[in-house]
Design goal:
The protein is mostly helical. The chain contains 21 helices and 2 strands. The protein has helices at 24-31, 33-42, 45-52, 56-84, 86-105, 110-123, 127-142, 148-176, 180-183, 185-199, 203-208, 220-238, 245-264, 272-277, 279-308, 314-320, 322-335, 342-358, 368-396, 402-427, 434-457, and strands spanning 5-8, 11-14.
């Protein structure tokens, strides 16, 4: 192989050199901003509801607000990363995380807290597409087709954060109240800004290497229609009553306009034509959506049930989530360097079915060992499914659109989180009761079976991760 020299991050590198490890720290630190906020909020929903005298169906908007923002923000920022390179978007997004943290820490009303979560959603949308863009450019430079080790490291670090997020949130609530789980974002934001400014390559450098195409016009109309469709549909799902039928009509009308707009515009916000022509990638997005309905519905629903029906403190509930995240980390570490995905998805889907069925055994007097066992079982598919879908995307996406494709994968992940939030709000309208938990379990069991079905029928998975 001919060795050519390129510039990356201000330092001369050779085409035969290994992955530039200076990029790993900002990639990882940026990617954990969203999961650490999700994990800490899981133990804070009940205290926040008590502080503002709000029911679970109202505090669920803290989840919904963030994930509507990320569902819109991920593909938008992904397209901008493809056009302008990762540095500017990464720095802007992580700065917004710090601003959102300050607003949340000082929030006097619930609606202000929801606003801070929306800003947080947009801010945390930059790091993942930026990281996937950098992985692709480094792959082209080094000649390594699939950097499975780096992908596994990103996944493991997100799982590690999920381990420490609930206990950290419980500790901060015990020491200074729920406000402090928002304040953590300020030092994290500053660290990202420093590392990003020092280590990420400039757009001009990437353009000279041919990695960043010319900027495309932003599809503002498409973005607004997409956000309006999601918001109208979520407003119905959060309170599904016959009297709110008009929200479904509004969703269908605005959603139809969005589809027509995206099919006709030269540079759409979401390129639906690309999705239609790449069925394996579309199947990966569907699996991501289904997997994270289960993951987020369990994370938030189980935690609220532990605090309200099992009468545990936020710190104790956070500790009970540790086995779930430890199991996810162990599975990711054991399988992360193997690029094959079909076996992971089949195993993950089967264990997911067992875990969802086991939720039906839980009651307010259930022993701690059973609570730990259920959480541990459901941690295994979290470690398998997320990593497998990420590897599948890396193999299936168009290299020229890696940033936007990665952003869209996260969009489907957050659409799953939105569906999970709506399910929790619907089943916990009268509080986080055991009956509500069991109704949630039946829904998740059906979704787990559907996930298995989508995996089995997707024959393209046999080729992912195998030599050509």
């Amino acid at each position: 192989m001919t060795r050519t020299s390129t510039w990356l991050g201000g330092r001369r590198r050779s085409a035969g050199a290994g992955f530039d490890r200076r990029l790993i720290a900002p990639m990882i630190l940026g990617s954990i901003l969203n999961p650490i906020n999700s994990a800490m909020l899981a133990v804070a929903l009940i205290p926040i509801g008590q502080a503002f005298n709000a029911a679970p169906s109202e505090t669920a908007w803290l989840i919904t607000g963030l994930y509507v923002a990320t569902a819109v923000g991920q593909p938008v920022i992904g397209r901008l990363v493809d056009a302008y390179g990762p540095r500017l978007l990464y720095l802007t997004g992580t700065a917004l995380v710090g601003v959102a943290g300050l607003i949340g820490m000082l929030a006097p009303e619930l609606w202000v807290l929801i606003l801070s979560r929306v800003l947080l959603g947009f801010g945390t949308s930059a790091a993942y597409p930026a990281s996937m863009f950098l992985l692709r450019t480094e792959s082209e430079r080094t000649g390594v087709r699939s950097p499975s080790g780096i992908l596994a490291a990103l996944s493991i670090c997100n799982q590690v954060v999920s381990v420490f997020g609930p206990p950290l949130g419980g500790l901060l609530i015990g020491v200074g109240g729920w406000h402090w789980i928002f304040g953590v974002n300020v030092p994290l934001s500053l660290a990202c800004l420093v590392l990003g400014a020092l280590r990420l390559p400039r757009a001009s450098t990437l353009r000279r290497q041919g990695h960043a195409p010319a900027a495309e016009g932003a599809d503002i109309t498409g973005m607004v229609l997409f956000a309006a469709t999601l918001t109208a549909f979520m407003m119905f799902l959060m309170d599904p009553e016959v009297g709110h039928w008009y929200l479904l009509v509004l969703t269908a009308a605005v959603g139809g306009g969005f589809v027509l707009r995206e099919l006709r515009t030269p540079a759409p916000f979401l390129d639906l034509r690309v999705l239609g022509g790449n069925l394996p990638l579309l199947a990966t997005y569907v699996r991501q959506f289904l997997a994270f309905i289960t993951s987020y519905a369990f994370l938030f629903g189980f935690t609220q049930w532990l605090e309200e029906s099992r009468s545990l403190s936020p710190s104790a509930a956070g500790l009970l989530l540790l086995p779930m995240s430890v199991a996810a980390i162990a599975v990711t570490a054991a399988t992360g360097r193997h690029p094959e995905v079909r076996g992971k998805l089949l195993a993950g889907s089967l264990v997911q079915i067992v875990g969802c069925a086991a939720m039906l055994l839980l009651h307010a007097t259930s022993p701690v060992w059973l609570l730990v066992l259920v959480g541990t079982v459901l941690g295994i598919p979290q470690g398998l499914n997320g990593l497998a879908n990420q590897n599948a995307l890396y193999a299936q996406a168009d290299p020229a659109r890696m940033g936007s494709s990665a952003g869209l994968l996260r969009t489907f992940m957050y659409l799953g989180a939105l569906a999970a939030s709506a399910a929790n709000a619907a089943f916990y309208r009268d509080g986080a009761t055991t009956a509500g938990l069991h109704h949630l379990a039946w829904l998740l069991l059906a979704i787990a079976v559907l996930f298995l079905t989508v995996t089995v029928v997707d024959r393209s998975l046999r080729r992912v991760g195998r030599p050509s």
